Amino acid sequence: MKVLLHMCCGPCSIAPIKYLRSHQIDFVGYFYNPNIHPYKEFKRRLETLGEYALQENFDLIVDEEYPLGEFLRRIMSVEDARCRECYVIRLQMVARKAKELGCEAFTTTLLVSPYQNHALIKEIGEQIAIDEGIPFYYADYRPGWHEAVQESRDRTMYRQPYCGCIFSEKERYYKPKC
Predict the structure, then answer these.
(1) N or C end of the chain, less CB within 10 A?
(2) Residues contacting residue 144 through CB under 8 Å, at least 6 positions apart
(3) In this structure, is residue 73 part of a structural domain?
(4) How far apart are CA 154 and CA 98, in angstroms?
(5) Of 33, 83, 89, 22, which Cα lies nearest the Cα of 61?
(6) What is the CATH number of the domain that holds 10?
């Protein structure tokens, strides 16, 4: 089976790649993340992932387009459900790219993070699979998360302190004075 693996960053790719390889699943990495802000953060994550792809010898397709304005317009209309919309935006693109490349399924490294809404990602992935006509390969990569965190530290990979969007950056750093 050949799967297109959506990748948000290098550290979050470690456990999913180990999982896929241990299950003899061929994959191609795909970096598509219009949510990441600011642009320097986008580039830093991409550079770290590119270095990791070379070290671990896997193909990485990069969508270097940076449609932040379009992304913000879409999520601002549903601010209370911004994570849902962000998952939809990215997974739709991944499914379409997987079909274009002739892959048999698509999946995402978002399924590794204990900070992401795992059930919602699975639900959205399965619905997009129906809508786009390509299977969503679901796997719970979270059991490998702690080991992957340590490996990313041992490799001195850049580890981002927030999911990527401007709102999570604010939540991470802005502490209002009471």
Answers:
(1) C
(2) 14, 15, 16, 18, 19, 112
(3) yes
(4) 32
(5) 33
(6) 3.40.50.620
Torsion of CA 53, 82, 149, 42, to 10 degrees: 40
Residue 163 falls within a domain, yes or no?
yes
**Residue with token string 């070290």:** 55
Contact 63, 93 (CB under 8 A): yes
92 occurs within a structural domain? yes
Provide the token pair at 169. 């950056």
Each of the 178 residues of the chain gets a pLDDT tens digit; together they read 999 999 999 999 999 999 999 999 999 999 999 999 999 999 999 999 999 999 999 999 999 899 998 998 988 887 678 899 999 999 999 999 999 999 999 999 999 999 999 999 999 999 999 999 999 999 999 999 999 999 999 999 999 877 777 777 777 778 888 7
Please check whether residue 36 lies inside any domain of the structure: yes
